[in-house]
Amino acid sequence: MIREYRTIEEIAGPLMLVRKVDGVKYDELGEIELENGEVRRCRVLEVDGSNVLVQLFEASAGLNLAHSKVRFSGHGVELAVSDDMLGRVFSGMGRPIDGGPKLIPTASLDINGTPINPAARDYPNEFIQTGVSTIDGLNTLVRGQKLPIFSGSGLPHAQLAAQIARQASVRSDAGKTDFAVVFAAVGITFEEADFFISDFKRTGAIDRTVLFINLASDPAIERISTPRMALTAAEYLAFEKNMHVLVIITDITNYAEALREVSAARKEVPGRRGYPGYLYTDLATMYERAGRKLGCDGSITMIPILTMPEDDKTHPIPDLTGYITEGQIILSREIYRKGYLPPVDVLPSLSRLKDKGIGPGKTREDHANTMNQLFASYARGRDAKELMVVLGEAALTPVDRLYAKFADEFEARYINQGFDENRSVEETLDLGWELLRILPRSEMKRISPAILDKYWPEDETQA
Questions:
Q1: What pLDDT does 460 receive?
Q2: Which of 259, 278, 318, 450 has its CA 20 to 30 A from that of 399?
Q3: Is the separation of the CB atoms in 40 and 34 below 8 Å?
Q4: Is 450 exposed, middle or buried (0-12, 13-18, 19+ CB in 10 A)?
């Protein structure tokens, strides 16, 4: 039986103290009914005997302590899920905001999810094509992987996120299973929300996408729930409907800031830079919901996007994210200033599972060889360009000048592809071979002789 309490004693901003309650648990969802019948939602932050501290999802303005009633639902925050979620736009709390009909839910699931038994996890080993050469060719995304994008303030990570959401697809036998995208935008502006919605509708990607929008003007407590709403929807589609789901969350930094705000309101002891000491654990409870299950055709692949404050990779958010996830894609301000889009800095970027998702039957037999050779050649070309700045071009050997030329062409043609070009992995690999022909065949030291003979015959003239 649901009880109503009229024992609200104090309100301080979004926090409210309710006394003399019974049987209420941490993280439980509650409702506050105002004198005029309006209902606002809240969540239990702290329980102290018969006293509970709750945080409102909406503003506390107009709330009369003496005439307002509080009731608790007996469960945490839940998301109503259904097959009809695809193609819909929801708020950060799972309410439809696209003007469409209300969902008829198949089930209501706790947004904190159910942990995957480690023994039931299957190893990620299948290629996901994003259409972006710097990811597909050099830092390959694998089905079931967690691969974050580290960006900086002002860099076009939103456009890259939209591009990946539009273009991503699964190849090989796994492609027989339906593919879906769950996109969670956390703490964004009205302009960014309008960009995502209009972009997905313009390209038709909205039909396979579940979109959650949390605005910067929404309460911090809602910002904490939004990524978990998205992951709950992804778990339903992946493990109940056997779909391959790509989850994109932007921006994790806004989520962590909201977590710090709630932690400060609860007067918890702060950790590094004011973030709560459990930030690592909290992030892990989200990231580790990605993966594959033995005996299940569906999977969850995750691309969390975060902006590094002051471009600092040692900041707690990117630092802890790097510990939990399997690599990172790093966006470069220097490459962005050159006008190359998307501005991915391939040398410090890394996908730890890329070797598991490439090769015969997945991409192409020459993928690993060309990937290693492109990395080595670009790194040497960057070194040659730095030496050229100090000593001048005349000080370089003829081969070093070719490497410097290769680095320029690699950035202008391989890295720079814009946000509307969708390259297949075959096109990416062919472009890599075309660029490598700038260099002498004798410099192809990271490509096996058999692959080199097949894709670069001895009698073929130098480009």
A1: 65
A2: 450
A3: yes
A4: exposed
Instruction: Determine contact, residues 51/66, Cβ cutoff 8 Å.
Output: no
Place of tokens 């806004």: 254
Burial 60-81 (b: 16+ CB within 10 A, else e): beebeeeebbbebeeebbbbbb
Structure tokens at 281: 């654990």
pLDDT number for residue 63 = 87
Tokens representing 290 are: 């990605």
Find out whether 306 and 318 touch, Cβ atoms under 8 Å: yes
Tell me how far apart the alpha carbons of residues 147 and 139 are, in angstroms, rounded to a whole number.
9
Contacts of 322 (CB under 8 A, 6+ apart): 148, 313, 328
Tokens representing 214? Answer: 């949390």
User: CA dihedral in degrees (34, 40, 45, 48; nearest 10)?
Assistant: 20
Cis, peptide link before residue 318, omega less than 30° from 0: no
Q: Which residues contact 401 (CB under 8 A, 6 or more apart)?
A: 384, 393
Token pair of 432 as six digits: 């890599």
d(C-alpha 96, C-alpha 418), whole Å: 32
pLDDT of residue 176: 61
pTM: 0.93
Query: In order along the chain (463 residues), what is the average pLDDT of each group of 10 residues?
Result: 88 88 91 91 90 87 88 91 95 93 92 86 94 97 97 95 95 73 96 95 94 93 93 96 96 95 86 94 95 93 96 95 96 96 96 94 95 97 94 90 97 97 96 96 95 85 50
Residue 255 backbone dihedrals phi, psi, to 5 degrees: -65, -45
For residue 273, what pLDDT is reported?
92
pLDDT value of residue 463: 45
Residue 263 is given by DSSP the state H
Which of left, alpha, beta for 37 (phi over 0: left; psi -120 to 50: alpha)?
Answer: left
